[in-house]
Amino acid sequence: MRSYQPDLTPPWKRSAPVPEVPAEPDLVVEEVATGFCGAVIRCEKTAQGPTVTLEDRFGKHRVFPMEPRGFLLEGKVVTLVRPAPGGPVRPTRTASGSVAVPGARARVARAGRIYVEGRHDAELVERVWGDDLRIEGVVVEYLEGIDDLPAIVAEFGPGPDARLGVLVDHLVAGSKESRIAAQVSDPHVLVVGHPYIDVWEAVKPSSVGIGAWPVVPRGQDWKTGVCRALGWPENTGAAWQHILSTVHSYKDLEPQLLGRVEELIDFVTLPE
Q1: Which residues form a coiled coil (predicted)?
Q2: What are the pLDDT digits (tens) for 117-173?
């Protein structure tokens, strides 16, 4: 008969138990050793033991062993385990990659706002960040261009309890947009932008099913030129609806846009 051997390890040196979490698809975790953060793509059995494949928001894949205490979920150490076969799978993330809150009610709208240049920009932001914005009570409005941005900001009257975030297309050095943005100087206003001529370009070509966004010669309407180069009917409204239909989550957008939108959301939702 085997004798009982007590655990003589001092309590302060014992590892506290951590929860086991099924590695369901789209669960976003961070690997503790490397800091790599991504969504679960799949789990596999290997000769060395079970592994999990993660995809970060830039589309990069990494494979990690599913070791005990090997991952962080919402900042807490967990052990990933293979999900039960045939078990129910429900989305755990919103389209932006945030934690989904089933049944959450929309918050009463804040005084703060996010302004974008046009309707297409607003529709794209809604498609990916809509759930987050409703929970935070952030309203997105579009300006139809930014030529009158300084006057619009002055009329809005930003303050500590009404911050204003502005997303600008083609915000690069020397552009008209950069000169207009430089005229806005207010601690309660944040103007950021992406380098693309139009927000269409912020959708990854691979998501749309094209090799790359075409280069349109100067002097031509950019959207019409894109339709011509791609052999699409010259109906920019219909073209945009096709492009928008290919966007299912943040993974379909370029990081230069992702970071700027999230920066604006953080800015307008800071505590008063």
Answers
A1: none
A2: 999 999 999 999 988 888 888 899 988 778 889 999 999 999 998 999 999 998 888
Q: How confident is the model at residue 98 (pLDDT cuts 50, 70, 90)?
A: low
Reported as a pLDDT band with limits 50, 70 and 90, residue 271 is confident
Instruction: Outline where DSSP puts E strands in the chain.
Output: 20-22, 28-31, 37-46, 49-55, 61-65, 71-73, 76-81, 113-116, 139-142, 164-168, 189-193
pTM: 0.65
Rg of the chain in Å (alpha carbons): 23
CB 193 within 8 A of CB 167: yes
Cα 265 to Cα 65: distance, rounded to the nearest angstrom: 35
Q: Tokens in use for 236?
A: 């920019």
Structure tokens at 21: 């979490």
Return the pLDDT at 105. 57
Write out the two tokens for 259.
């970071």
Average pLDDT, rounded, for the chain:
85
**Which of 180, 48, 179, 167 has the alpha carbon at shortest distance from 114?**
167
- Max distance between CA atoms of the chain, in angstroms, equals 90
Contact 19, 78 (CB under 8 A): yes
Number of helices and strands (H, E) in the chain?
A: 7, 11
